[in-house]
Design goal:
By secondary structure, the chain is an alpha+beta fold. The chain contains three helices and four strands. It has one domain. β1, α2 and β2 form a beta-alpha-beta unit. It is globular. The N and C termini lie far apart (40 Å).
C-alpha cells in the first residue's frame, strides 16, 4: 500500500479477522481514524502496542480521556498514549487486566 492510501474500514475488518488472535504489535496509517482505532482495540485482544500515523489534521483528542470513552477494557490505569505530531503510540498493559 502506498503511503498516500489510507486503510479503509473494510481493510481494518480483514486485518482484525486474520491477525486478532496472535498480533501483539500493529502499525497503521489513517487519513481519517474515526472509529477505526476503537474497532481495533475492541477486536484485537492480543495487542500490546498500536502505532497509528494520522495524515493531515493531528487528532489531539486521541488521549486517555478519549480512550476511556471507547468500549474497551483500556483506561488510564492500564494504558499510555503518546502523541508525537501525526504519530500516536498506544501501549496497552494486558497484565493489569488479569489481576
Amino acid at each position: 500500500m502506498r503511503r498516500s492510501q489510507s486503510i479503509s474500514r473494510n481493510e481494518i475488518e480483514q486485518i482484525t479477522r486474520i491477525f486478532s488472535s496472535k498480533c501483539q504489535h500493529l502499525s497503521l496509517y489513517f487519513k481519517f481514524p474515526d472509529d477505526k482505532i476503537s474497532f481495533i482495540l475492541q477486536n484485537m485482544p492480543q495487542l500490546y502496542t498500536l502505532h497509528v500515523n494520522i495524515y493531515g489534521k493531528t487528532y489531539s483528542t486521541l488521549d486517555i480521556k478519549w480512550l476511556e470513552k471507547q468500549q474497551t477494557t483500556f483506561n488510564a490505569s492500564n494504558s499510555t498514549i503518546v502523541i508525537n505530531g501525526h504519530d500516536h503510540y498506544f501501549w496497552l498493559d494486558k497484565t493489569l487486566l488479569k489481576k
